[in-house]
Structure formats: C-alpha cells, structure tokens
Amino acid sequence: MTCIAHNYKSFLFDLDGVIYLGDSVIPGTKETIEYLRTLNKNIRFLTNNPLGTTLDFVKKLNNLGIVAFDSEVFSVGKATASFLVSEGFQDKPVYVIGSEGLKSELRAQGICIVAELNHLDATAVVASVHYDFSYHELMIATQILDQCGVLYGTNRDAVRPTVNGKMPGSGSILAAIETASGIEAQIIGKPALPFMHAVIRSLPASSSTPVIIIGDRLDTDIQAGVSAQIDTALVLTGISTLNDVKVSNLQPDFIIPSIASLTHSVP
User: Fold this and answer.
1) CA quadruple 115, 118, 124, 128: dihedral, nearest 10
2) At CA 204, angle to CA 199 and CA 206, rounded to 5?
3) Which residues are catalytic?
C-alpha cells in the first residue's frame, strides 16, 4: 500500500473533472490541496480548457476556496500563444476559431488575429472549442488552409466533462476542420511534450522529482505523463472509466476514486 501524498514531491493536477466540475468543487479537493501545501509539496494546475485565460482559472480556483497562484497555473491558451511566438508568428495574421479567452491570451503575446473580411491574409489557423462554432467559420478555415496549409489545435479533447455530462470539446471542432481541409493539426496542449516540459521546468530544480500527474483522461493526462516519463494517477470523477482502462494500452500507475484518495493508502 502507498500513500501518494507522501511519496511525491510535485503534483500536477488537471482541472476539469479532477478539481471541479463546472462551478462545483469535487468533494475532498480543498482539503487535499491544503494538506499537500502543509507538506510543502510543489503544486501545478494544468488545463486543456481554452475557454478562459490563465487569470480566469486562477480566479476560479480562488473563488472555489482553493489557493492558487499565477505561477502555478498552466493554461492551453497561454501555451498556444507562447508556442506561436516561438514559431515566428508574432505580428503575423492568424485566423482563430476560439473563445475570447483564447484570443485574449494570443493578443497579449503579440499575435495578430485576422478579421474575417481579410481572412485570406492569414498565415495559419488556430482552432479550439467555443460555443458559437459555425459552418461559416469552417468554410473560412478551409479556404485559408487551402492556401497556407498550417493548422494548430489547442488540444484534441473530443469532449469536456460538465455537471450535465459530456459536452463537445476542441477535438470535435478540430476533426471537422481537418476533414474539410485535409490538413492534420499540430497539437499544442496535453499530451504534447512542449507543454509538459514547460510545466516541469517551472518546478524548483532541487525538488522537481519525483513528479506525478493526476488527471481524468487516459488520452491526454495519462498519455502526457507517459510521454514526459513521470508517474500517473487516473481519477474516476471525469471522463475515463474503469472500462476504458481495461481496453486501453495506456495504464496509469494508480487508479483512484478522486483526489481525496491521495492522502490515503492505495494499492
């Protein structure tokens, strides 16, 4: 039997389906995070949710009673902006299918978001989930990609966990764009290694290992941990189920009911 809280120095938490569902904290979460802080553990919060800014997620966590700081939160929106800058897209026109939160993160790092009237000037398409996705956006993206052939996706999460069940995610929208254009997207968020490496580099050098990632999805969270060569724990409060584990090649190091089990002895 193992007490995960005592065996690791750094904890990487997914948000949706792990820390909260919608605006409701998953039972035991606040107490677990507080306990880890009393043990001086390193905590990071990771999210593939492109609907908000990093600051939005910090505020949400704090409003839910979970202490979190800007330096601890890694959002796919900010990661996408940083990636585009590293690829030379600063000040270049980019067509964005996504939320205002994502667009805000891109603008903050100097990414020029092209207007629909001038969409053929775009040098790339960035796609993610947003609630007003339309056939018109799909048509414009297809036309742009026919010229530039450069497509980036924030993430491939096909669905998102909510209090009302599963809802379409970025992967669903991305699939439509890839099908229409024939262009395969490069993914920036989990489980992509650049995203994970940025998180791991943020940990104190003297105490960055051992590290564990805790998530609710095999295809993003557990795959991210496997790719980054860190340990993994799957919680059953979100998307993936025990049946999914049985038929998957991805096997987490731990399977626990919720993050409250981090403070208990588990097999």
Assistant:
1) 30
2) 135
3) 14, 16
Query: Torsions phi, psi of 251, nearest 5?
Result: -120, 115
Which among 86, 63, 84 has a CA at the least distance from the CA of 150? 84
For domain 2-48+190-266, which architecture applies? 3-Layer(aba) Sandwich (3.40)
pTM: 0.90
Beta-carbon count within 10 A of 117 CB: 7
Residue type, 200: I
Q: Report pLDDT digits (tens) over 17-70.
A: 999 999 999 999 999 999 999 999 999 999 999 999 999 999 999 999 999 999
d(CA 76, CA 81): 9
How many secondary structure helices (H) and strands (E) does the chain include?
10, 17
Burial readout 213-251 (b: 16 or more C-beta within 10 A, e: otherwise):
bbbbbbbbbbbbbbebebbbbbbbbbbbeeeebeeeebe
Residue range 79-187, CATH number: 3.40.50.1000
